Structures are given as C-alpha cells and as structure tokens.
Amino acid sequence: MRFIFTRDTWQEIFGTIRKNKLRTAITIIGVFWGILLFVGLQGAAKGMENGFDYTFKDLATNSIFLWGQQTGIPYAGYNRNRTIRLELNDTYRIANQVEGVQFVVPRNAKGIFDGAAPLVVNKLKSGNYKVFGDYPIIDNVSKKKLRKGRFLNHKDISSNRKICVIGERIEKELFEKDDNPIGQYIKISNIYFQIVGVYKENNTDFFEGDDSIFIPFTTFKKVFNTGNRIGWMVIAGYPDEDIVAIEEKTKELLKRRYSVHPNDERAFGAANFGEMFGKITGFVKGLKFTALIVGIATILAGVIAIGNILLITVKERTKEIGIRRALGAKPGEIRGQIILESVFLTLVAGILGMTVGGLSLSVLNNFAKSWDDFPFMNPTVSLQYIGFAIAIMVILGTLIGLIPAQRAVSIRPIEALREE
Questions:
Q1: Residues with Cβ < 8 Å from 94, sequence gap 6 or more?
Q2: Tell me: the pLDDT tens digits for 23-39?
Q3: Are 384 and 46 in contact (CB under 8 A)?
Q4: How crowded is residue 126: how many other Cβ atoms within 10 Å of its Cβ?
Q5: 84, part of any domain
Q6: Nearest-CA neighbor of 333 among 344, 345, 325, 342?
Q7: pTM exceeds cut of 0.85
Q8: Best exposed site among 1, 109, 214, 231 by fewest CB in 10 Å?
C-alpha cells in the first residue's frame, strides 16, 4: 500500500490524465451527473419533507373530522334517509370508550353549512362572517396565529362570556386603519360581543380563513339555541395510534348509539386527516427512495464508463506496462495504480457533483422562500447520505478498476515489449 503515497505513482496518474484531457472529462461526467442527481433529488425530497413538517407543525395531524349525515339503509324500524344529528354527549362517549383517542373537540358554526353567515356590525360598517362556537382545546387541533390579544379560555366557557376572536380581514373591513379592535364591541346577530383577540390566516385552517369569528361554545349554544346538538367533531388520536382503526371504532360506537345499520356507510361522514397526512409522508418517502435508486444507477453507469476508458488506457499503455514489469515492477503495484486511478477519478467526479448539487440546492432554497403556497424549505442532504454516496463511489471505483487492473497484470513483459 506504500505506493499510494509515493510521488511517482501520482505523477503517472496525472500524466495519464493530462495526455487524455478530453477523454477524462467525458469519462467523469457520468459519475458527476449521477452524484448531482443524487444530491439534487435527495435535497429536494428533504425540502418537501421540511415544508410539510413546517406547514402542519401546529396541526393535530393524527386526527379525524366526523359529522352526521343521512342513513342509507332502513334499520330497527327506521326508514332510510333519516338525518343523524350528533350531540355533545357523543364526544364524551368517544373519548372514554374508543381506545387510542387523545381528545375530542365538539364544534358548531354558522355560515358554512347552513346558508348565509350572521350579520356582524361595528358602528356604521357591517358584513356577513362565519361564526364558530368552540372550546379552547380547538387550538390544539389547528393553532391560531394571534396578531393581537388572546384566544378563548376556560373561564370564557364556564361563564358563558360574550367575547370573540376575529380574523384580520374582519379587522380591516370593520375598523379604521389605526383603530385597535381589542376591547371594543361588535354586534353578532344583534348581540354585543367584546373583542379579545385578532388572528391571522393559517394555511392549515380548514373552514375558518381570516374572515371568521370564534366565540365560546357555551355562548354559541345560547345565542343560536343549538341545545346539545353539535355540527361536527374533531377526534385526535395519540401520535402512534392507528387513526384509521380509531375512525372505524368511532363509527361502530355511533351506529349503535343511533340505531344505524352496521353496513351503512352513508350515516356518518368523515375526513381522516391522519390518513391523508400518511399518504403525503409516504409520497415523500417514495420520492427519497426513487432519488436513491436513480442516483445509484446513474453513478454505476458513470463508474462503468470510467472502467471502459481505463481498459482503453491500459491497451494504449501496453508497452509502457511491459517496460515497468521488465524493470522489476510487481503485479500488485501495477494493479494498485490502475485501481487507484479509477477510485481517484470517481471521487473527483463525485466531489464536483456534490459541490454543484449543494450550490444548486442553496439557489433553490432562496427561490423557495417566495413560494408562499408551496410546502418547500431548507433542502439539504444529511451527512449519512453523503457518507453513503462516498462509500458507494469508493467501492464501485475499486471494483470497476479491478477489470483493467487485471488486464494490465496479465500482460507478459516480453509480449508487451513486442507491441508496435
């Protein structure tokens, strides 16, 4: 192995490269392109993964939205098309009886499922806006980004306070530019509510947007006379629980509760966000795996090209190799030099590919900062993948280099010296 560190060995390698500059450049392009693809695709996949994680960081991703609909099968003396209206007590049953449920949030709303939104008035300005009746725990489902003031609290619920949190669009439309709405009163369906907070739009809001108003669930119940009825509920499972199984168990419980046929799929509607998020993360993982396969395949193709070029080089250097053998060069030294040249060219191409790939990801990241609606940020490649790529290059470079190296040492000195 001492020949690796000798000056003569590297002089011969660089001398060969200088004699065939164009051939060497074309040779390393394959490995360069493979590493560039590997780094670029892995970084892009990581950027998407980071983007999704950031977008949904304030959202209970392992959750279900569930509501009552109309039955599709006659059962227990009831006709089909019977409307199922969920009640507040259903949330307690689910929380206590369905395994894996972390919490259940009942919700009510005006202006999204039942026609026109309530009229909201501030002095001479007015507009129709959605009104939600919620518990403070809804903030654990989709975190509200407050610009001013606070969100709902438990005291608001227990005291049936007439307070509200409004979206920033409502602030702009009902208040003057320099007018602070916190502490002021607006009329919602002819009832005065004091504003305690202003929130801005969140990309993970499902119905709210920035043109909605949140009031305590208990206050909503009295103002709009909903009794124990709820519009829908959000069921959040613990992070490691199977949210699909939780949905099935919940529907089974509700079907027994409301005398719904076990095979009736129409009675309850659900949006399983956990399942959808699982598909998103599965897509990102698939993209990373595809990038890995494409990168390795392209690197392999490039390394094979290096092996082919070295075979040609060995043939051209037959006489030179014969002279070295005649002067006492050992087969191991000849073999080692050819393999070293193969690994060297592979690593040079790979490092160039990593450098250009890293710079490309940096440029892409700067552009991505202006993509507000696309989940993409901080595209990087982990040191684990970089180390893996380098190991692959060294191993493949060594294995491919063995072919021309064996060809070189198989040449008999006397035959080599006869080459014209």
A1: 101, 104, 233, 235, 250, 253, 254
A2: 677 777 777 887 888 78
A3: no
A4: 14
A5: no
A6: 325
A7: no
A8: 1
